[in-house]
Structures are given as structure tokens and as C-alpha cells.
């Protein structure tokens, strides 16, 4: 079996959260979705499980974090271009999310983080692997100077 990751996120409203994730490019897998949870597919190996608070509580005795106030995780999503980074963040904003900080452009790496409806932070990013070695050499030379 292929190794996979399932990120389980507590959400206040499964239907609204599902619509948000569909708007930013995830696909709902109806086989593992119902009124309590939606399985949202990012790739063959990466899925986000949107779990209503009551259902989420069946998996943990810990308090559910208010991720509008507390950072619980930063979830990076790789994209194939700067334009794709901008497109997913723009779609997130249009679907009710918000950009959490300014665009980060380090030359070889580009990102525009956003929050979903429940405050979970995503960091879509593009890394230009051809420019990466030169950027690392420049950083090392700057440290040595």
C-alpha cells in the first residue's frame, strides 16, 4: 500500500468547510464522507479529513484549539508555479478565508499563506529548484563574510 497522510481538522460546519476546500481545488471523496466528516483529496497520497467538532471529540480527550487565536499547525502545500500559489490563495480569500501575512518572496521560494474558515493555516509555496543552489551559496557566503 502506498504511504498516505490524512490530516484531520476539526471544523465548525462540515458543509461550509467542504465547499471552501472544493473552492481551493480539493476533491471530495464521497466514499469516506457524510454529515459528520468530509474526506478532501489533495493528491493520491494526501487527504484532509474535515471533522465536525462532535465527531472530532470522539478521537481525542483534548480541548479543540481555537485556531483563529492559537496556531496549532502550519500546513505547506507545494504548487508548480508562483501563479498557482497566487491562484489558490486568491480562491481561498474568495471562498471566505483570509491571507494571514504578506507574500514571502525569497527569490527561489515563494509563498502566500492563508487561513480556512476555521483558522487552520495553509502555506502554499513554490520552490524553484534550479535557483535553489545559487540561493544557498549566496546565504553561505553572507554568513562567512
Notes on the protein architecture:
The chain is of the alpha+beta class. It folds into two domains: 1-64, 2,3-Dihydroxybiphenyl 1,2-Dioxygenase, domain 1 (Roll), CATH 3.10.180; 69-145, 2,3-Dihydroxybiphenyl 1,2-Dioxygenase, domain 1 (Roll), CATH 3.10.180.10. It has four helices and ten strands.
What is the mean predicted local confidence, pLDDT? 92
| Helical content (DSSP H or I, runs of 4+) | 25-40%
**Tally of helical runs:** 4
Q: Which H/E pattern describes the elements?
A: EHEEEHEHEEEEEH
Radius of gyration: 17 Å
Class of secondary structure makeup: alpha+beta
| The CATH superfamily title of the largest domain | 2,3-Dihydroxybiphenyl 1,2-Dioxygenase, domain 1
Layout of strands and helices, then pairs:
Blueprint: E1 5-11, H1 14-23, E2 27-29, E3 37-41, E4 46-52, H2 53-56, E5 74-78, H3 82-94, E6 98-99, E7 104-105, E8 109-111, E9 114-115, E10 121-127, H4 132-144
